[in-house]
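Late entry, evening session. Most of the bench is empty. Finally got around to the prediction I had been postponing all week. Sequence below, unchanged from the version circulated by S.P.
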Amino acid sequence: MPSSEIYRYLDVGRNKVPLDTESYLIHLNDWTPAVAQAMAAEEGRELTDLHWEVIEVLRDFYHRFEMAPSMRPLVKAMTQTYGPEKGKSIYLMRLFPDSPAKVGARIAGLPKPANCL
């Protein structure tokens, strides 16, 4: 779960969305596609349809299991939803460099996956 202490705010239109020290949402219900775009823009990333597919899978996984997936379950979920070409670590690394599960979960408005440092 995200820390309940507000570290900073993300400006999204006229709204200020509270974030924790790792830039995860304090309140998961604050997530909207506009919040995702603002988070991505802070990293210099523009979300494409391919990114949105991963975000959709991450959010669906969270709603089914009440936890953000680490890399292995994310790869499996992507394979089940979009097939073997999109269910590969290398594919996800191209979209979300560094840590697809961690970065993807943050942009998807989910808590940090339990097994991510």
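Two things to note before I forget:
The chain has a mean pLDDT of 93.
The chain has two domains: 8-42, 49-107.
Will write this up properly tomorrow.
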